[in-house]
Amino acid sequence: MAGLPLECIFLLAYALSLALIAFLLEWIAGHAHRRSMASSTAGFIYHSDRDIWKCPQDQHLFPIFSDSARKTVVYRAPASACNACPSKMACTDSNHGREIERQLGDVESGMRQFHRALSLTLLALGGLILGVELFRTGGRLPRTVLASTLALFCLLIARLSRNRNRNNFPEGSTEQTLHRGMYP
Questions:
Q1: What is the C-alpha to C-alpha distance for residues 105 and 71, in angstroms, rounded to an integer?
Q2: What number of other Cβ atoms are within 10 A of residue 78's Cβ?
Q3: 2 pLDDT band (50/70/90 cuts)?
Q4: pLDDT by residue (tens digit) across 110-145?
Q5: Bridge partners (DSSP) listed for residue 61
Q6: Residue 151: is its pLDDT beyond 50?
Q7: Alpha carbons 133 and 153: distance in angstroms, whole number
């Protein structure tokens, strides 16, 4: 990178490291979200053709409540089946039967929204640093490099903003579910 001032190189490296941190944060948040959603329904199978869940003990959880505002459906197994089940202690402590809440729409959890906002803030900060340096620096090569990197940051911010309210999980997958059976 001959021809670039040392200060410009350091600011580019700093801005790019902010972008790297933002995308690592996105990846880690997505991984943690998928893992927690999958573990809450481990062993349960969703049958989309019948709109029911089947537990590991071959009991069915039927839809009992739907909230169109929150875009959720709550499924519950019969209390009599759960209370007589030998696996009840490992599954739920509720006397009303095991419940699973399924997210239907493009709803992200609060933690994912928090991490997305943090990632966007880091990218915006990196873009601001690049923009300020673009106006401070003279010379054709430094301005071209800074403008190109700034354009890349703007594309990344636009892409993350567009995906902000989008859930990357297929309809009916276990990653879209939350479980409430442990909390009566």
A1: 6
A2: 15
A3: low
A4: 777 888 899 999 999 999 999 999 999 888 999 999
A5: 53
A6: yes
A7: 14
